[in-house]
Specification:
Number of domains: 1
Helix content: under 10%
Order of helices and strands: EEEEEEEEEEEEEEEEEEEE
Largest sheet: 9 strands, mixed
CATH architecture: Sandwich
CATH topology: Jelly Rolls
CATH class: Mainly Beta
Strand content: over 45%
């Protein structure tokens, strides 16, 4: 089954002048009991952070937090001693585990565009940890590029403590990629730009698809497109 959620159904939030966000799941002041998570994917925020601003230090625990920088850059600092600049095309994973606090700030004059995703971890009580990698995912064409995964069969990706994998794809017009899945898995797709046909369903910019009980997804671009695809376990026992 494919469930199409149009861009207009995203929750728009601009709580401060420097932040423009779209929440794909319940978050902060937005609560919908029917939209609290999709498998272990608990948060997906599409954020634009203006220059010389950002999130001050705040705490987290028992969550895998993944940040993809699509444009601009952010400086990450946390109470575990990590400090790094995450630039366009880079991916960061922070395991909050038993607890830490961090800040994310944009010290440049240019706006930063990021996707931030939170996953429920596959076990509690983990020690906080951090990983960052330049995956160069914004330049590769016509393939699903794995960025972050807890499935150890994949190499040269950022590791997370979740039985899930995040892919990125830059798909040229009239090209097709095929994603093979299983009925015990779910697939989440969010389109950054362009248009797709997914198993015959027309998907536009900032639309999302949540797929369950499928074996194969045929994804064709009707115009140049960029999208994120997340492979997720359907059952909490497999998170």
């Amino acid at each position: 089954m494919l469930k199409l959620i149009p861009a207009t159904d995203r929750h728009h939030a601009a709580p401060v002048q420097w932040l423009n966000s779209y929440f794909l799941f319940s978050f902060a002041d937005y609560y919908d009991p029917d939209n609290s998570q999709f498998g272990p994917l608990r948060v997906f925020n599409d954020d634009t952070i203006q220059g010389n601003s950002g999130f001050p230090q705040h705490p987290h625990s028992e969550m895998e937090i993944v940040t993809l920088v699509l444009d601009g850059e952010l400086v990450h600092t946390d109470t575990a001693g990590n400090k790094a600049t995450i630039k366009k095309g880079e991916v960061q994973r922070m395991t909050a585990g038993t607890g830490l606090a961090h800040s994310e700030t944009n010290g440049t004059d240019k706006a930063a565009h990021i996707y931030q995703l939170w996953f429920l971890p596959n076990q509690k009580g983990l020690s906080p940890s951090y990983e960052q990698k330049d995956v160069d995912f914004l330049d590769k064409k016509n393939e699903l590029v794995p960025l972050v995964s807890g499935q150890k069969v994949l190499e040269d990706v950022v590791y997370m403590n979740s039985n899930s994998t995040i892919y990125w794809c830059n798909l040229s017009a009239d090209k097709t990629v095929t994603f093979k899945t299983f009925p015990i898995r779910s697939t989440f797709i969010y389109v950054k730009e362009g248009n797709l046909y997914i198993n015959g369903v027309d998907i536009g910019p900032n639309d999302q698809v949540r797929s369950t009980d499928e074996n194969v997804l045929e994804i064709r671009a009707s115009k140049d497109a960029q999208f994120i695809l997340i492979d997720l376990p359907s059952s909490a026992a497999n998170y």
